[in-house]
Amino acid sequence: MTIKIITPPSTEPITLTEARLHLRIIPNEDSPPSHPDDPWILETISAAREWCENYTRRALAPQTVEVILDEFPDNEIQLPMSPIASITSIKYIDSDGNEQTLASGLYVLDNDQEPGWVLPLINTTWPATYGVVNSVRVRYEVGYTSAQDSPNNRPLPRLLKSAMLLLLTHWDENRGAVDLPVTLELALQSLLFHYQLRLALA
Question: In the prediction, which pLDDT does 148 show?
């Protein structure tokens, strides 16, 4: 199983204004306000999100991802990253070597469990594939939402946002290439541990 990002987040869980306030960076009085560190701050917000996503195996902002398999499994397909909003498409190479899109009425998304699963409709099976690598592609929408997203129906837990802010502070105070200190790693683990997805081996 391989997972790839198809469409990265268009918004971040932490806004530039929130980050400036947290870092005690005062912008100038332009309209809109700006600061020479703004590009660095924006890049570091994204880096903090990605760090927490890699640790938890969750999506901290809305994005489109795709799981790639060589063939359909016997039953359900595990979907890494959470929370899952919806399935965009399930495409596969059929037994004649042609790409097909599976009708949405032939499968069911279980996004109440974490990690989520997509299953063939009851009393049905997945279709046969051609037997080549990367024959099956499941594309789906994932990610917590923030105040700047509409709708904000999967709000980001505060502990996850706090972990991002901890990283942001550390990288602001240590802008060279330095490892995370043990105390910071422990603090991050305490914030993120209960949000780690436990994935089955695939």
Answer: 78
- Number of helical H runs and strand E runs in the chain: 4, 8
**Are the CB atoms for 194 and 55 separated by under 8 Å?**
no
Task: List pLDDT tens digits, range 89-104.
Answer: 999 999 999 999 999 9
Confidence of residue 183 (pLDDT cuts 50, 70, 90): very high
Give the integer Cα–Cα distance in Å for 153 and 103.
Answer: 27
- CA separation for the pair 179, 5 (Å, rounded): 27
What does the buried/exposed string (b/e) look like for 142-170 if buried means 16 or more CB atoms within 10 Å of the residue's CB? bbbbbeebeeeebebeeebbebbbbbbbb
What is 2-61+147-195's CATH number? Answer: 1.10.3230.30
C-alpha 11 chain-centroid distance: 12
CB 161 within 8 A of CB 13: yes
